[in-house]
Here is the input.
Amino acid sequence: MGKYECKVCGCEEFISQLLQYDVFEHQDGKLVFIKSEIVEEQLELFCRDCSEKISFEDEDVIY
Ligand SMILES: [Zn+2]
Here is the structure.
């Protein structure tokens, strides 16, 4: 068993779930898209296949 694999399904790919939202601004009666922002909280990773939450060491994360 690898160090990081899903306990439920064995998948070795994980996805983060950062909160992202788009900012719109009122301009002359229109709503104009300004930018996307990401709410960066603590990184959490979930199994890509079954969404099981994965626990991991922060120092093992390589961007
Ligand atoms: Zn899984």
Observations:
- The chain has a mean pLDDT of 91.
- The pocket of zinc ion is lined by residues 6, 8-9, 11, 47, 49-50, 52 (CB under 6 Å).
- The first strand starts at residue 14 and ends at 16.
